[in-house]
Amino acid sequence: MKKIYLFILFLIINFGALAIGSWFMGDAVSGEWYSNLNKAPWTPPGWVFGAAWTLIMICFSIYLSYLFSIRNSKFVIAVYTSSVLLNVSWNYFFFNQQLTTLGLVNIVLLTLLIIYFFITFGDDKLSRLKYLLLPYIIWLCIATSLNGHVVFNN
Which residues cross the membrane (predicted)? Predict the structure, then answer.
């Protein structure tokens, strides 16, 4: 029962963070600045972002519900909080402030942090569940390449 409560809690936090990040974006995606960027040829259509983040946050919430039922420490909370802050702040840096280089640094740090989750908190009890982080890691690698393309080609 505890894992169900944790799962619901993490769904609320994770999707809430996505909503805050979206709020930070404002109308930047449909604005002149973003439409004039030299975007990567592999930039997916807009609907892919919503579908990807939905899948990612469901998988991440499942993983976190197990992680926190096994290892609920101040350190794990701090690592998770850092991931939420990095996730939300990327939207602010990249879209709201148009600081694409800072956005790139931010997303690289977020990618490294999620890989850290995969490596560090993937012990015996979470050995199979850690693979729920793969959609997040893969998506962050794609997003990092998209952000990097903007930084190095604009």
Answer: 7-26, 46-68, 75-93, 99-119, 131-152
122 is written with which tokens? 């993937």
Cβ atoms within 10 Å, residue 128:
10
Q: DSSP state, 29?
A: G
Asked if residues 86 and 109 have their Cβ atoms less than 8 Å apart, the reply is: yes
Is residue 29 a contact partner of residue 96, using CB atoms and an 8 Å limit? no
Residue 124 has pLDDT above 80, yes or no: no
Can you read off the two tokens belonging to residue 93? 């840096």
Q: Which residues of 54-90 are buried (b: 16+ CB within 10 A; e: fewer)?
A: eebbbbbbbbbbbbbeeeeeeebeebbeebbebbbbb
- Please name each of the domains of the chain with its CATH number: 2-153 (1.20.1260)
Say if residue 30's pLDDT is above 90: no
Beta-carbon contacts of residue 27 (< 8 Å; ≥ 6 apart): none
Residue that is written with structure tokens 């939207």 in the block: 91
